[in-house]
Amino acid sequence: MEKERKILDAYKILRDADTDFLVRLAVLVPQAILNTRDISLFEMEIKKLYADNKKIIAIKTYRQKTGVSLRESKEACEKITGVKGMYNDN
């Protein structure tokens, strides 16, 4: 939500700017908002897998969808969920 607010604030500030720029921005803003929602749904999926004690599947899913290394995937999942290590029950 914070990211969406910043995008909309930037749009308001620049609305008196170059018309071509505004046309491009008007196309990009909705896409950015959709991308933010997609990320949130993806993070919710990762959190759900962790909550169901399917951490390896979560890491594999993250890796498949993002194309990052196994280590980066594990670290990203830990950051998303706030859980460090494979056997932490937090």
Can you walk through the features of this model?
The structure is a single chain. The chain has about 90 residues and is mainly alpha-helical. It has one domain. About 80% of the residues lie in helices and about 0% in strands. The chain contains four helices and no strands. The protein has helices at about 1-15, 20-50, 55-65, 70-80. Helix 1 runs antiparallel to helix 2 and helix 2 packs antiparallel against helix 3. The two termini are about 25 Å apart. About 10% of the residues are buried. The mean pLDDT is about 75.
Query: Unreliable segments (pLDDT under 50, ≥5 consecutive)?
Result: none
Instruction: Give the proportion of residues in helices.
Output: over 70%
Radius of gyration: 18 Å
* Order of helix and strand elements from N to C terminus: HHHH
Number of β-strand runs: 0
Q: How many alpha or pi helices?
A: 4
| Termini separation | 26 Å
Strand count, sense and barrel status of the largest sheet are:
none
Structural class: mainly alpha
Mean pLDDT over the full residue set = 76
- Overall shape: it is elongated
